Q: What sequence folds into this?
């Protein structure tokens, strides 16, 4: 089955060029190009798209809120960032992958294949965090250090480090800021919990 792709960028030339590259691949079909996210949900429903490539700059400072709402509404859709301008890398953490404006045709082709492979693996893997891993993740997101987490949960520091490794392996996220965004997006914490 071909993957159905929507591209959302305010740069028409970028959208057209990217669409041409992606359409050249047997497993992809670009079904729509949008210049804003305003009608994105409607297009996903009418085209049955399973991949959205979106330029985070079209979202502005609503990036985090948009992704949170998007994932709730379309959990089956793979969300890929299309980076056309310089931006804070923490904005890219919630995306399944990143295509950059300077990527060559062959690099985009390789990335698209990799995104689909990784997405299928994630869907096939059991990425459920255990209760204890979830507790450790929440503590990390709240800014606690390993020793503080260990003391609060009556664990050894070594056990906390093991839980952190498991969380990173299961989520694919290494940074504290990335884990914080993951916790926010999955309703494990809210913004009031953050220091």
A:
């Amino acid at each position: 089955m071909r993957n159905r792709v929507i591209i959302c960028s305010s740069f028409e030339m970028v959208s057209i060029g990217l669409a041409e590259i992606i359409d050249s691949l047997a497993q992809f079909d670009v079904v729509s190009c949008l210049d804003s996210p305003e009608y994105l949900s409607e297009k996903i429903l009418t085209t049955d798209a399973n991949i959205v490539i979106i330029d985070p700059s079209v979202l502005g400072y609503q990036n985090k809120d948009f992704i949170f709402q998007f994932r709730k509404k379309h959990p089956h859709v793979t969300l890929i960032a299309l980076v056309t301008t310089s931006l804070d890398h923490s904005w890219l953490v919630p995306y399944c992958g990143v295509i950059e404006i300077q990527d060559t045709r062959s690099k985009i082709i390789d990335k698209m294949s990799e995104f689909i492979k990784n997405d299928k693996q994630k869907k096939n893997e059991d990425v459920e965090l255990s209760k204890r891993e979830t507790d450790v993740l929440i503590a990390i997101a709240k800014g606690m250090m390993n020793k503080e987490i260990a003391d609060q949960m009556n664990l050894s520091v070594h056990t906390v480090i093991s839980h952190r490794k498991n969380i990173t392996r299961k989520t694919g996220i290494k940074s504290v800021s990335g884990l914080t965004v993951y916790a926010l997006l999955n309703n494990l914490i809210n913004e009031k919990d953050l220091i």
Notes: The CA atoms of residues 17 and 156 lie 53 Å apart. The radius of gyration is 18 Å. Residues 105-124 form the longest helix (20 residues).
